[in-house]
């Protein structure tokens, strides 16, 4: 058994240090002492086992209750799962604010002066090893790290509602790497079970998607699932040809509509909407680049209802206007899917 030590040897020593503390009989007094000296704030980041440990440790409950009664701000980021939901609800009264983050990898806490990183297990003994540090820059680095994680985490009540009501979480993500965007497109397409709306702001973007084999993915999704309707809205003229969209190669549930230059003149994004539930708005950065990866910029990927519906409305408005313009054209000028 590791020798017992007095936490004051670390906490009241002016010397900056990093120490590895082993044994629950040493670690528990250290954590209690660190927290008891806190005046302003405690920040905790923990995996799904953290709440289980907390609820099975009366001393931890007492310490956090004392902190909260003294007005210390206690923030915690926890991975909330179906398995630990009961424990999370028990933890919530002991903290000032609680948030959820998926796939937390380890556990650490940081106060104004001290940093500890702890190995927590589901079964007893819950804590086996702790890294302690009072090095000023090290503590500040982890305070900064916690703030980054905090901004990315979601409120615990939202996560609990997702679990209890089986809801899908809303998100809006910005993808900055064009390669990441190109890798995501097939995954989004393959998730469709009713409808895919696609808008290409120029004929060049359409051709790039063809050369990358992505247009073929849209067609294949329609072939695999007869319930999926695919609608392409493309800026182009009658002379634009596409072997990929010849009617004799696809089913009836793929439609192509050419939009006149005026209708898509101010739009600089490629739009993909799946089942009116999720969407990708891909910035067209440089239409003169031959490769897709060089022609696109930022991408907004979201399942936010308001965001998706606003882009659906844009698509439908241009589609209807394009159909109306086509009806006004002489019969021999109309573009049909057979000609495309």
SSE blueprint:
Blueprint: H1 8-11, E1 18-22, H2 24-36, E2 41-46, H3 50-55, H4 58-69, E3 73-78, H5 85-91, E4 97-100, E5 107-110, E6 115-120, E7 127-133, H6 136-152, E8 154-155, H7 156-165, E9 172-175, H8 178-190, E10 195-200, H9 203-211, H10 214-224, E11 229-235, E12 254-259, E13 269-274, E14 278-284, H11 292-295, E15 296-302, H12 305-328
Parallel strand pairs: 2-3, 3-4, 10-11, 11-12
Antiparallel strand pairs: 1-7, 2-5, 4-8, 5-6, 6-7, 9-15, 10-13, 13-14, 14-15
Helix pairs in contact: 8-10
- Counting DSSP H or I runs of 4 or more residues, the number of helices is 12
- The order of strands across the largest sheet is 1-7-6-5-2-3-4-8
Number of strands: 15
Portion of residues within helices: 25-40%
Cα shape = elongated
Any overview of this molecule?
The chain has 340 residues and is α+β, with helices and mostly antiparallel strands. The chain is built from 12 helices and 15 strands. It has an 8-stranded mixed β-sheet, sandwiched between helices. Strands 9-15-14-13-10-11-12 form a 7-stranded mixed β-sheet, sandwiched between helices. Strand 5 (107-110) and strand 6 form a beta hairpin. The longest helix is centred in the C-terminal third of the chain and has 24 residues, at 305-328. The chain starts with 7 loop residues before the first helix and ends in a 12-residue tail after the last helix.
